[in-house]
Amino acid sequence: MITQEMIDRINELYHKSQDTGLSEEEAAEQKELRRKYIEAIRVNMRANLNRISIQEKDGTVTDLGKKFGGVKEV
Q1: What is the DSSP code string of the chain?
Q2: Which of 20, 32, 40, 72 is the most buried (most CB within 10 A)?
Q3: pLDDT tens-place string over residues 37-73
C-alpha cells in the first residue's frame, strides 16, 4: 500500500534530482518507491476491472471479472 509519505518522498527525490542530482542510495530509493507505486496502481486497477459487469443485448449479465480476471466464485 502506498502512503502519502511515500508519495511525498517520491516527489521530493524527483525535485532533488532536477536540482542537484541524487546519490546512488537516493536513486535506488527512488527506483524502489516508484516500483511500489506502480505495483499498487496495477493491483488497484486490476481490482476495479474485475468488478465490471456487462449487460448483454439479451438481458443477461456477464461478470468480466469471473470470465477474464480469474476471480473465483465465493
Answers
A1: ---HHHHHHHHHHHHHHHHT---HHHHHHHHHHHHHHHHHHHHHHHHHHHT-EEE-TTS-EEEHHHHHS-PPP-
A2: 40
A3: 999 999 999 999 888 999 999 999 988 888 887 655 5
